[in-house]
Design goal:
8-stranded mixed β-sheet, 2-enoyl-CoA Hydratase, Chain A, domain 1, 736 residues, single chain, 31 helices, N-(1-d-carboxylethyl)-l-norvaline Dehydrogenase, domain 2
Length: 736
């Protein structure tokens, strides 16, 4: 049989080595052709009496990255077509049957009568790891970069090829639920401890060890297919079961507020499946998988967090005619928290860093931040002392601007003060080369105005990092009016080199991310001034899908920073540009009470060492009126907190700040945690429908004011029934 993706070799002992090596791909992924070939391989192994068993491994550095999600997109389109032509019942039936093909394929492997061993090198994720779970034995190489996991929950799905049922039969149900609901990629030693990997061997011994298990009499049956098999945690309806599932359901609701259909499906499939024989349990899993594929949440999350994110990470917005740039040395001016953190992630990527501050002591303090972060990694076993020393050796701390002379890119990360930045730019441009790109890490000041201080505005660009830099995946690249393609390409190459996701936006006060998220924070402030209890504001923020409430988020980014931004906005645009109630609240907290946020352990919350943060009791003194929480419309609060952000995103599209809808959605989720189940700020509008969204906005505008007024673009879209992904589909040249 002719094969493209697999190679089958049978040795003298009758053991087949199945090597998976899809051509033209850096990693193996599961698509329809792979499934077809694997089915033929399984039939060959099962039907050839000379073959005693099979070892499946990868010819690449990793085993498998999972399924090609374009298959699911095709399934969804097919469902829509069949439903339109033959009715919903036939559409659902087709979706169910096609959606369970991979699950049935793995079950055929598992019950073919011959032992199968997965020899895992590198990553084995999603459907690739489900293949390993269907095998009768799993051997992994001791590569420290290897990971296994079922991360489908992170894109709005759940394991649909047997993962929920096999994992739930291999470990205690509480541990299984945690593994499935977190979707973490775990290291091999941890996986062995969890007994989802059977053996760990040196990379050079991987295949031999796998074959030895077969030669030594490895059985072609998994435990759940053996008569008398007992579940690790006992029966669902038992004392142990009742100590697991009711509390697990409570935890699930506390953490998700029932916003994620796939998380609910995991709970349901494990609960139902453990009460059934494996074949019936797999059928239950497939039914739920077909149901989840039809949800708008899954469609939105797959599009934003997988398809769009991959495209942006590959440089979808990078100018095509500018050659790629390699970085030898990056200059960073400002060794405070942000500058030091940018230096850390740059050095972590193997790039030399010049870290400058007003004096050597301040610069050294910034370098010490990298030492602290690396030491934390060493203590957790995620890095070695030698790796820490090597990273620190790549960072040169100095007060001498002359050290910037041979840098490829210079980033200023000084105080958010126009005069300070102007002085910094002047000092830097006197020493840097004529081809060096200069970037500002400003969070709100327009790039065009800052570029006016630079000798060549075409080489000036904004590169806006989010805090904490080492954990946040997004970087916002801001184009000034005169920024050139070389500057844009350089900025994108740098962001990708440090393994972040770039979005490109046009110049505007606050750019994109801060415009949206500052509205979220402001709405929390205004709710507070209306008399809504602070605890209710915070809880509703999380209920709406945000990672933290608006008051807590304000503490994290610092109240005094918000106060500075408000004052700068008022100075530049006049008093009508700021909200008087918000101004009073921030002035009261920052200037009169000295409450700056988490950084000085007192903001909206108190931060006592060694204790959980608690809302500051003195907040009650700042509310002139107090509403009865039982009479407050919780759904309205949720709408306010999400819609005020999505409205700003729509304005950014109308104004041309955002020119690619993918960047609004990916940027909103990665940059400020906008409710991931919605797919992002613009997908939230599309999911709700522009007509309904505009109708709700008009009601909120009438009740709460101009900030909820829908822009003309959105009103026009509502009248036509347009969506953002319909009207502004990526790759089209349609204008607002």
């Amino acid at each position: 049989m002719h094969m493209v993706h697999f190679k089958l070799d049978v040795d003298a002992d009758g053991i087949a080595l199945v090597t998976w090596d899809s051509p033209g791909r850096s990693m193996n992924v599961i698509d329809l052709k792979v499934m077809e070939e694997l089915a033929n391989v399984i039939d060959k192994v099962a039907g050839d009496a000379a073959i005693k068993g099979a070892v499946i491994t990868s010819g690449k550095d990793s085993f498998c990255a999972g399924a090609d999600l374009t298959m699911l997109d095709m399934l969804s389109r097919e469902f829509t077509d069949v439903m339109r032509e033959q009715g919903e019942e036939m559409g659902v039936h087709r979706l169910f049957e096609e959606g369970r093909r991979l699950s049935q394929l793995y079950r055929r492997l598992e019950t073919c009568g011959k032992p199968w061993v997965a020899a895992i090198n590198g990553m084995a994720l999603g459907g690739g790891f489900e293949l390993c779970l269907a095998c009768h034995h799993r051997v992994a190489s001791d590569n420290p970069k290897s990971r296994v996991g079922l991360p489908e929950i992170k894109i709005g799905l759940f394991p649909g090829a047997g993962g929920t049922q096999r994992i739930a039969r291999m470990m205690m149900p509480g541990d299984a639920l945690q593994f499935l609901l977190k979707g973490d990629q775990i290291r091999i030693p941890q996986a062995k401890g969890m007994k989802i990997i059977d053996a760990v061997v040196p990379a050079g011994d991987l295949v031999d060890a796998a074959k030895k298990w077969i030669r030594d009499g490895g059985k072609p049956t998994n435990p759940w297919d053996v008569e008398g098999f007992r579940l690790p945690g006992g029966l669902v309806y038992s004392k142990a079961g009742m100590m697991t599932f009711p509390p697990a359901n409570a935890i699930y609701r506390r953490e998700t507020y029932d916003n994620y259909p796939a998380a609910r499906a995991i709970m349901q499939t494990v609960y139902e499946g453990l009460q059934l024989p494996i074949d019936q349990a797999l059928r239950v899993e497939s039914r739920w998988f077909a149901k989840i594929l039809r949800t708008p949440e899954a469609a939105a999350m797959i599009r934003s967090l997988f398809v769009s994110m991959q495209e942006l990470n590959k440089g979808a917005r990078r100018p095509k005619d500018v050659p790629p740039r390699e970085f030898n040395k990056i200059g960073i001016i400002g060794a405070g928290f942000m500058g030091a953190s940018i230096g850390y992630v740059t050095a972590l990527a193997g790039i030399e860093v010049v870290l400058i501050d007003r004096d050597l002591e301040s610069a050294d303090k910034g370098k010490q931040h990298s030492h602290k972060l690396m030491t934390e990694q060493v203590n957790r076993g995620r890095a070695t002392s030698a790796e820490r020393d090597a990273l620190l050796a790549r960072i040169t701390a100095t007060a001498d601007y002359g050290a910037l002379s041979d840098c490829d890119l210079v980033i200023e990360a000084v105080f958010e003060d126009r005069k300070v930045k102007a002085e910094t730019i002047k000092k830097a441009q006197d020493v840097i080369g004529n081809k060096t790109i200069f970037a500002s890490n400003t969070s709100t000041l327009p790039i065009t105005s800052l570029a006016g201080e630079f000798k060549d505005p075409a080489r000036f660009i904004g590169i806006h990092f989010f805090s904490p830099v080492e954990r946040m995946l997004l970087v916002e690249i801001i184009l000034g009016k005169e920024t050139g393609d070389v500057a844009l390409a350089t900025a994108m190459d740098f962001v990708r080199a440090i393994r972040k996701t770039p979005i490109v936006v046009n110049d505007s006060r606050g750019f994109f991310a801060n415009r949206c998220v500052l509205n979220y924070i402001q709405e929390g402030h205004l709710m507070f001034m209306e008399g809504v209890p602070a605890a209710m504001i915070e809880n509703v923020g999380r209920m709406a899908g945000m990672p933290v409430g608006p008051l807590s988020l304000n503490d994290e980014v610092a109240l005094d920073l918000g106060w500075k931004i408000l004052k700068a906005t008022e100075a530049d645009l006049g008093p009508k540009a700021v909200n008087a109630d918000q101004k009073w609240l921030l002035q009261e907290l920052v200037e009169k009470r000295g409450r700056l946020g988490r950084k000085n352990a007192k903001g909206f919350y108190d931060y006592a060492p060694g204790s959980p943060k608690r809302l500051w009791p003195g907040l009650a003194e700042l509310q002139n009126k107090k509403l009865d929480p039982d009479k407050i419309d919780v759904q309205e609060l949720k709408y306010r907190l999400l819609m005020v952000q999505s409205l700003e995103a729509a304005r950014c599209v109308e104004e041309g700040v955002i020119t690619d809808v993918r960047e609004a959605d990916v940027g909103s989720i990665l940059g400020f945690g906008f409710a991931p189940f919605t797919g992002g700020t613009l997908s939230y509008i599309d999911m709700m429908g522009t007509r309904r969204f505009v109708d709700i906005c008009k009601k909120l505008e009438k009740k709460y004011g101009e900030r909820f007024k829908p822009p003309k673009l959105l009103v026009e879209m509502a009248q036509k029934g347009d969506t953002f992904y319909g009207r502004f589909a990526p790759g089209t040249a349609q204008a607002a």
